[in-house]
Amino acid sequence: MFPNTEPFESGMLAVGDSQEIYWECSGNPNGRPAVYLHGGPGSGCVPQNRRYFDPAIYKIILTDQRGCGRSRPRVREISDLKVNTTAHLVADLERLREHLRVDSWTVLGASWGSTLGLVYAQAFPHRVASMVLACVTTTSRREVRWITHDMGRIFPEQWERFASLGADVLNREIDLADSYAALVFSADASVRERAACEWCAWEDTHVSLGPGYAPSRRFEDPVFRLLFTRLVTHYWRHAAFLTEDQLIRNASLLSDIPGVLIHGRHDISSPLETAWRLQRAWRGSILQIIDDAGHGGGALPESVAVAMTRIAPGE
Q: Which one of 74, 231, 235, 245 is separated from 43 by 20 to 30 angstroms, measured CA to CA?
């Protein structure tokens, strides 16, 4: 990965609905614009994200999606989520592009960021010069069901603990994204805190197969883990506000955009099948499978940085 570079410009952009999103630019002010879409939903950007980009080539644009990170206001009430949907996030990206006077940009999305990147590119293909997507997801109901329910077959002990809390909320066939979405807005602070802790413990479990794995230090922050859980469960319970397989069905809209999909062989959080299906439907894309990587880790970060250099428009 490339050395870190500090922002030369940053700000808050009003995007409507009383929301402001944080943005920053680093690298080469006259370089090729590239935007990084963070995961979660709700994780926000960190300085490490700049290191995927060669600062000599790119004008590196990072932004925190609405409701999280340095964007304001953060999600505090369940009513705040009414103005936090995939369509809102796509519209925010377009406002940011226009604000920065960028004609088209390279999009790098990781995990949830790959879902958001695909939605954005299918809505505005003429604004996307190229794409690199890592840990590919489409946030379909099938994928959400896998990660919240079916993966208990791999981690039965940890899943039993995770599921037992959700089972206290709904006396029916449990949808854990639904039940946790209710728990993290409970009037009881202890219930909210326990739900956020259990959700983030499950997140740490299913990403643990990558080499060099260590539990996320960000989950030690009670404010971060509650906000993160509120946003993840909101988007997952609604399957990203998309119809099933929408992003695969509409992949032909990306046919003029060069793309690289990078996925770990041992990524059980987002099984390789999704990236495989997308690559077969997206003419002009290539799939790079990293044999020693899970949902991050191993050679995956370095592979993303290399792909960003190779896919640079005009290179």
A: 245
